[in-house]
Design a protein that fits this description.
- The protein is globular and about 60 Å long.
- By secondary structure, it is mainly alpha-helical.
Length: 332
């Protein structure tokens, strides 16, 4: 079974072909930071944005500076060694590359948006110095620590701990913390601001959606193989975890919107976070608990794999050049 201890190295016969297909599809969706055009962003920051909007951007890039590094650490230290499938590990290796590209993208954002050296250092240290970002970091590290000392998943309790870690990073961190950050970016895009950030974010958005879908496919596979692990206690822990994530993100929302950003409110952000949390529960096959609707019309069409908008230099759901037959109708 997928979580059995060991290190299966054999790709034939292939036990989990869906993971291999996910790996192949991720290769088709390669992008580089150098393709993102920030040429108009600096002028937007200086001449077109309010002080409150600039504060919002500074907080966003400060969070981005360490967010994907935390995800990468959990992937290497906790996920890779416990998902006992070579094709799944191929995908995780590819995901690690994509997380590195995201880190490079956010590094470029910091260098572009925050030219002052001391301000940039403060942004990199945000996880220690800014309470709202530190709270999110502590939430992440708490769930990393839950399985840090597990060398193998020998017992049902070990496997439930692993599942909670995996679900946390898929639904709370990549699926909620980052999706909230994307909402701020797309709000600014709806006002015609920061086209470079929006274009790069489209590609990050697509990657993060794929990462979440992979993790949830792992969860679904384990559910089929070991249904007894998914008891009422596990479901309660998932709901509690998501609720805590919403509260962490709300503290960040209060900080990021503290200057008063016209068109965005803390109340709307809470509704959006509760809407996202309900979506994540539904993806896990659990009952929604908030009953919230999406308050942001500009986000209605974002939660898809293929994205294209007139601000972009090209569509974000593109394929790199490949040899042989190319199907442009293939679903990503």
């Amino acid at each position: 079974m997928l979580l059995d201890p060991g290190f299966n190295l054999t790709l034939r016969p292939m036990m989990y072909p869906d993971f291999y297909e996910m790996y192949k599809n991720s290769i088709k969706n390669t992008w580089t930071v150098e393709e993102v055009d920030f040429s108009t962003d600096v002028n937007d920051l200086r001449a077109k944005m309010t002080a409150a909007e600039r504060h919002m951007i500074n907080r966003l890039v400060a969070f981005f500076a360490t967010g994907d590094s935390i995800v990468s650490n959990n992937l290497v230290l906790n996920l890779y060694k416990h998902v006992n499938s070579p094709e799944a590990r191929m995908y995780l290796s590819r995901q690690l590359f994509e997380e590195a590209v995201h880190v490079q993208f956010y590094l470029t954002l910091l260098d572009t948006y925050i030219p002052d050296h001391k301000e940039r250092e403060q942004a990199f240290a945000a996880i220690e110095n800014i309470p709202s970002i530190r709270k999110k970091g502590e939430f992440c590290m708490k769930w990393i620590d839950t399985i840090q000392d597990l060398d193998s998943l020998q017992t049902a309790d070990d496997r439930r701990k692993f599942l909670l870690n995996l679900i946390c990073f898929a639904t709370c961190i990549e699926g909620l913390f980052f999706f909230a950050a994307f909402a701020y970016v797309y709000f600014l895009r709806s006002k015609g601001l920061l086209h470079g950030l929006a274009a790069g974010t489209n590609w990050v958005f697509r990657d993060e959606s794929a990462h979440m879908n992979f993790a949830l496919e792992v969860v679904n596979t384990v559910r089929k193989e070991e249904p007894q692990l998914f008891d009422a206690a596990l479901e309660r822990e998932i709901v509690t975890m998501l609720d805590e994530a919403v509260e962490c993100e709300m503290q960040f929302a209060e900080d990021i919107l503290s200057g008063g950003v016209a068109g965005l409110s803390v109340a709307d952000m809470r509704q959006y976070l509760e809407f996202i949390a309900d979506q994540r529960l539904a993806m896990l096959g659990l009952t929604k608990v908030y009953g919230a609707k999406n308050p942001f019309g500009f986000m209605d069409l974002q939660d898809v794999q293929e994205l294209a908008n007139f601000f972009e230099r090209r569509v974000s759901a593109y394929q790199v050049a490949v040899a042989g037959e190319v199907s442009f109708s293939e679903a990503f």
